[in-house]
Amino acid sequence: MNQQATSEPGLFVVTGGSRGIGAAVACLAARHYHVVILYRSGTAEAQRVVERIQGEGGRATAIQADVGDEAAVLDAYRQIDELGSMQVLVNNAGITGAAGKVDAVSFDTVSDVFRVNVVGAFVAAREAVRRMSTAHGGRGGVIINISSGAAQLGSPNNWVHYAATKGAIDTMTIGLAKEVASEGIRVNAVRPGLIATDIQNNRSAEQLSRMVAAIPMGRMGEAEEIAETVLWLASPAASYVTGAILDARGGL
Ligand code: NAP
After folding, report:
1. Pfam families, from UniProt (predicted)?
2. Does residue 92's CB lie within 6 angstroms of at least one atom of ligand 1?
C-alpha cells in the first residue's frame, strides 16, 4: 500500500491551488492531509483557501512559486521539506494561453503554455519522485496529473497548443507510472471536461453554451466533482490503479 501509516498527516501538494479545481482539491484533501498549495500570483486567493481549511480544523500552507520557473519550484520544495514528508503531488497548475488558430499562434504563447503545463509538471514530478520513491529512500506516494479532455479532442480553431500540452501530460502519466511502479509511487491522470472555473473566462457565452449543448449530461462540471475523483486516486482505495487516465467530463 502506498499510503503512510503515521499519526502525522503526510503532505499533499497541489500546484495551482489558489483557485478553481486546485482549490477544491486542496479543501477536500485537507480532511486527511496537511495540504500545501503552490500558486503563481493570487496571494489573497491562496490565503483564503488556507484560512478556509484552517477554519475547518485542517492544516494548510501556501507557497508562491511559478511552476514554469525551475528555481522557484526548487525553492518551494525546500520549504515543503521543512513541513514534513511528502505523500501526494497533484500537478494541477495550468494555463490555456491566448486563443487562436495554429496559423496565428505566437512563439511566446506556445512556449509559455508548454513551460507551465508540461515543463512545470515534469519538474514538480521529478522533485516528488526524488522524495517519495523507495529507490531514493522515500516511503512511496502518489502523483496525479490534471490533464484535459482537450488532449483527445484537439481543441481546433482555438487551443490546439493547450490541447497538445495535455496530450504530453497523458503520455508522461503512462511513462512515469511504469517507471516508478516498483518504487512505491502510483501515477495517474484525470481528464476533466468543461468545468466551471475562471479558466472559462476566455470563452464567449455563445461558445460556452454551444459546448454545454454537446455534453451528454447537459451541464458543466463543478471543481468539487474533479476533486472527488482526484482524492479517490490518491486514496488507498485506488491502491492497484496506476498509469490510468480517468475521464471526468459528463460523457463528452
Ligand atoms: P483556474 O481556475 O484558471 O486556476 C488555475 C490555477 O493555476 C490558479 O491557482 C493559478 O494560480 C495557478 N497557476 C497558473 N499558472 C501557474 C504557474 N505558472 N505556477 C503556479 N500556479 C499557476 O484553472 P482551473 O480551471 O482550475 O484548471 C486547473 C487545471 O485543470 C489546469 O491544468 C487546466 O488545464 C485543467 N483543466 C481545466 C478544465 C476546466 O474546464 N476548468 C478542463 C480540463 C482541464 P494564480 O491565480 O496565482 O495564477
Report:
1. adh_short_C2 (PF13561)
2. yes
From 185, 47, 165, select the one nearest 96 (Cα to Cα).
Answer: 165
**30: which strand partners?**
none
Q: For ligand 1, what atom is nearest to the CA of residue 69?
A: 18
pLDDT, tens digit only, all 252 positions of the chain: 334 444 577 999 999 999 999 999 999 999 999 999 999 999 999 999 999 999 999 999 999 999 999 999 999 999 999 999 999 999 999 999 999 999 999 999 999 999 999 999 999 999 999 999 999 999 999 999 999 999 999 999 999 999 999 999 999 999 999 999 999 999 999 999 999 999 998 888 998 999 999 999 999 999 999 999 999 999 999 999 999 999 999 999
Residue 1 maps to a domain: no
For residue 151, what are the domain limits? 6-247
Q: Is 95 in the pocket of ligand 1 (CB under 6 A)?
A: yes
Helix (H, G, I), strand (E, B) or coil at 60: strand
| Residue 161 alpha carbon to ligand 1 centre in Å | 16
Q: Is residue 252 included in any domain, yes or no?
A: no
Domain with 118 in it: what CATH number?
A: 3.40.50.720
All 3 cell numbers of residue 200?
472559462
Instruction: Report the Cα 171 to chain-centroid distance in Å.
Output: 15
- The yes-or-no answer on residue 240 being catalytic is no
User: What pTM was estimated for this model as a whole?
Assistant: 0.97
Is 221 a pocket residue for ligand 1 (Cβ < 6 Å)?
A: no
Please give the tally of structural domains in the chain. 1
